[in-house]
Amino acid sequence: MLIIAGHVFVAPSDVDAFMTDARATLPFGRSADGNLFFSFTLDDPGEGSVTVLERWRDRTALNAYLARPEVVEIFQRWGGRMRNEVKMYDASNERSPRAD
């Protein structure tokens, strides 16, 4: 399993436009084959930070999502106007946080 987590930063004046574009990807991400969890939220409008959290079955599923034209377009539109501090993590041994 892969976990995608971190923050994206845009200019505070661009937050509303960025969130509109980002929210347009929710249906694609959540319905993608191999997606286990897909979410992002506006963390701090004043600093333009958005928290990203995703879980994917494997790299093949993530790559298929990232190759979608709608997703490519978002990255092309915002890539030069955002600071992307989102990282990918390999995860194993999934269990409840209350487990021993």
Keywords:
100 residues; alpha+beta; 4 helices; globular
Could you walk me through the main structural features you see in this protein, from its secondary elements to its overall organization?
It contains 4 helices and 4 strands; from the N terminus they run E-H-H-E-E-H-H-E. With about 100 residues, it is an alpha+beta fold. The longest helix has 10 residues.
Helix content bin: 25-40%
Structure annotation, total helices: 4
The helix/strand series, from N terminus to C terminus, equals EHHEEHHE
Q: What percent strand?
A: 35-45%
Cα radius of gyration in angstroms: 14 Å
**What is the rounded distance between the termini?**
21 Å
Low-confidence stretches: none
Shape: globular
Please state the structural category.
alpha+beta
Number of strands: 4
What is the mean pLDDT?
95
Spatial strand arrangement across the major sheet? 2-3-1-4
Q: Major beta sheet, specifics?
A: 4 strands, antiparallel
Structure summary:
By secondary structure, this protein is an alpha+beta fold. Helices cover 33% and strands 36% of the residues.
What secondary-structure arrangement, pairings included, does this model have?
Blueprint: E1 2-10, H1 15-23, H2 26-31, E2 35-44, E3 49-56, H3 59-66, H4 69-78, E4 82-90
Antiparallel strand pairs: 1-3, 1-4, 2-3
